[in-house]
Amino acid sequence: MADVREEGAGPVDGSGDPGHVGVPGEPVISDRVWTIPNILSMLRLAGVPLFLYLLLVPKADGWALAVLLFSGLSDWLDGKIARWLDQTSKLGALLDPAADRLYTIATVVAFVVRDIVPWWVAALLLARDVLVAGCILVLRRAGFGPPEVTYVGKAATFNLMYAFPLLLLAQGGSTFASVVRPVAYAFIIWGGVLFIWSGLLYLVQTRAALRLAPTAAV
């Protein structure tokens, strides 16, 4: 799931933080650790192994779904609270996307193990994350922040956030599962396509930023 609090790609400012560009009017990014958004992100991270255990060992899909829904709600809340209370922090900028990525990876891998989605779907989604991680690494080495979050990426996250819980609800042979199943497949198809598309857009943004590297270094 993509982090809406990421900074756009830009040269390193005087603070030495490659992910922050010193632009007037931006909220101050602090070094605080124990903020409400950070605590929510920590709880989300702690929920990843619990989610995997519930989904793979006792196959308690209802409880696994509850953990997944808490993850989605806390993901929305921590960004809102960070802005409302002016609690944007460097640690939060790391924890929030890390929790998103871990939940995405954990869910996709668990769904493959449970035969909920085919392996090639998981391979495509994970390959996109590897591509974006490579782009961020290359940009940081060139003195730039991460690529700017796109509306395509946000739309992909929105679709996947609905697709994963719906796919869990679609398991079984009940009438309810039969009704939910086509809706879940629609969300996972659209979310997957947009997810891969956003990865390609990150690649385009990275190439454009690298072309400006000599200018930014002056």
Structural overview:
By secondary structure, this protein is mainly α. The chain has a single domain, classed as Up-down Bundle (Four Helix Bundle (Hemerythrin (Met), subunit A)). Helix content is 70%, strand content 0%. It is built from seven helices and no strands. The chain has helices at residues 36-56, 61-84, 90-113, 119-141, 151-169, 175-211, 213-217. Residues 1-25 have low confidence and may be disordered.
Question: In a nutshell, what does this entry contain?
Answer:
The chain has 218 residues and is an all-alpha fold.
Shape: globular
Query: CATH superfamily assignment?
Result: CDP-alcohol phosphotransferase transmembrane (TM) domain
Radius of gyration over C-alpha positions, nearest whole angstrom: 18 Å
What is the CATH topology descriptor? Four Helix Bundle (Hemerythrin (Met), subunit A)
Low-confidence stretches: 1-25
What structural class do you assign from the helix and strand content?
A: mainly alpha
The helix fraction, in percent, is over 70%
The largest pleated sheet is described as:
none
* Number of separate domains: 1
Quick one: CATH class?
Answer: Mainly Alpha
Series of H and E elements: HHHHHHH
- Counting DSSP H or I runs of 4 or more residues, the number of helices is 7
Number of strands: 0
What is the terminal-to-terminal distance? 36 Å
